[in-house]
Amino acid sequence: MAPSPLFYQAGPALPEVSHAKGVYLWDDTGKQYLDGCSGAIACNLGHGRDDIRDAMLAQLDRVAFTYRTQFESAPAVALAETLVTLTHRQLEKVFFVSSGSEAVESALKLARQYFVASGEPQRQRFVSLRPSYHGSTLGALGVTGYEPLEAPFADITTASLKVPGPDFYRHGDADDAWHVTRVLEETRATIEAAGPETIIAFVLEPVGGASTGARLLDRRYLEGIRALCDEFGCLLILDEVLTGVGRTGAWFAYQHYGVTPDLLATAKGLGAGYYPVGAVLSRADIVETVMASGGFQHGHTYAGNPLACATGLAVIDAMQREHVLDNVAARGHELKEGLQALKARFPWVGDVRGLGLLWGVELVADATTKAPFPAEQNRFARITALAREEGLLIYPRRTLNGVAGDHFLVTPPLTINAADTAELLVRLERAMLRFDREVT
Ligand code: PLP
Predict the structure, then answer these.
(1) 364 CA distance to ligand 1 middle (Å)
(2) Nearest ligand 1 atom to alpha carbon 208
(3) ipTM computed for the complex
(4) pLDDT tens digits for the chain (440 residues)?
């Protein structure tokens, strides 16, 4: 067979997917996989849903594509209205895009243009966390804190200030409140040294995804960052590309914390794997200022096309009809209990953390010292391969803590039922037993 012309990743050839239904996928050899990570934390409603297909077909029959500056479309207006309502009108303006990177990129540019329009053009830098992941386009990469991704492009991305966020696992010996205070003080000192008047915005994931293995930010931390933004006159951009649209059990993760952003980027779960659609949600006055200055100098061809927005509407409609957020709470609880039971059995499980149906499992060589496995052992890849052999997809990543470390995410579709949650845990346990024999 000729080698594939695709070059997505180094490593062994992948099986070819045949079909999918619910939380299961099959490859062309007939092997079945439980989708324990919703693809890339995107297929939030599972696969092969008739209601989403029907809504998409109905829209295709009406009109698939119109350009956003030539026509308004009913699905775009309705989806924008729906998103605004889900924020309880705290964010009242919506700009559609097609991916998470585009959503972050658009939020960065909107924030910058706001300050140019407001007579503060000296605001030229963002503050973000190390580790973090905000996307692969150059602007989003500029605020991403993960050295291997940054390195080849460091000279051509406008570097943001990267500060450490709270890490309750690795600073668990300290009092949590004291840890948050110390991290916030460090952040303030970095900004004061750089000049607060040069900062456009903070960019944060309210719950880390692949970047940190579902590391949670703390309410006190987010309140502290919000207060710093207000004091220094800069904006707070939350990257909810992964956490938005129900993943953590709230429509948006910030709603758990009671800290409202000025701008919010979302994508993945909005199209639920059926069609690419993302959005930037903004405070109304920010958009009004930019529009009064001549309009937002930004846009993408496929942004807000009717098919994308009809898909997003069908996704949210299904979630509301089926009370999916209640399911996230119930299944999230079962998953948490199951993962914690596995942690108690295997000493190399250092930490289990998460919220809703976003769970991270961090692997360590030594649970007492929390020392990671040597990087060259690629343990994150090994456990993922074993899970795959056992018919379970999980989302692996070398922990982006700037040193080393391994973790994987367990993020099944938000519609997973109790029986499939139990089956997920059984398959994971089988993979972990095999992993245990290799590392102990
Ligand atoms: N931001 C976060 C928090 C993400 O998890 C991702 C993707 O994993 C992105 C941005 C980039 O999204 P996309 O891959 O759709 O460009």
Answers:
(1) 26
(2) 3
(3) 0.99
(4) 677 888 887 777 889 999 999 999 999 999 999 999 999 999 999 999 999 999 999 999 999 999 999 999 999 999 999 999 999 999 999 999 999 999 999 999 999 999 999 999 999 999 999 999 999 999 999 999 988 888 899 999 977 999 999 998 988 666 788 899 999 999 999 999 999 999 999 999 999 998 889 999 889 999 999 999 999 999 999 999 999 999 999 999 999 999 999 999 999 999 999 999 999 999 999 999 999 999 999 999 999 999 999 999 999 999 999 999 999 999 999 999 999 999 999 999 999 999 999 999 999 999 899 999 988 888 999 999 999 999 999 998 776 554 567 999 999 999 999 999 999 999 999 999 999 999 98
- Tell me which H or E stretch contains 392: strand 392-393
Question: Who contacts 37 (Cβ-Cβ below 8 Å, separation ≥6)?
Answer: 393, 394, 395, 409, 410, 411, 412
Closest atom, ligand 1, to C-alpha of 276: 15
Q: Are 319 and 271 in contact (CB under 8 A)?
A: no
Beta pairing class for 17-21 and 349-355 = unpaired
Q: How far apart are CA 414 and CA 396, in angstroms?
A: 19
DSSP state of 2: P
Q: Which ligand 1 atom sits nearest the alpha carbon of residue 104?
A: 10
User: Per the structure block, which two tokens stand in for 286?
Assistant: 């920010």
* DSSP conformational letter for 216: B
Q: How far is the CA of 135 from the centre of ligand 1 (A)?
A: 5
Q: Say whether pTM exceeds 0.90.
A: yes
3-state secondary structure 158-189: CCCEEECCCCCCCCCCCCHHHHHHHHHHHHHH
Token readout for 374 is 């040597």
Minimal CA–CA distance to 210: which of 148, 127, 302, 125? 148
Q: Are residues 360 and 332 in contact, defined by beta-carbon separation less than 8 angstroms?
A: no
Within 6 A (CB) of ligand 1 lie: 99-101, 104, 133-136, 205, 209-210, 239, 241-242, 267
Could you list the beta-strand ranges (E) of 8-64.
17-21, 24-27, 32-35
**Distance between Cα 241 and ligand 1 center (Å):** 6
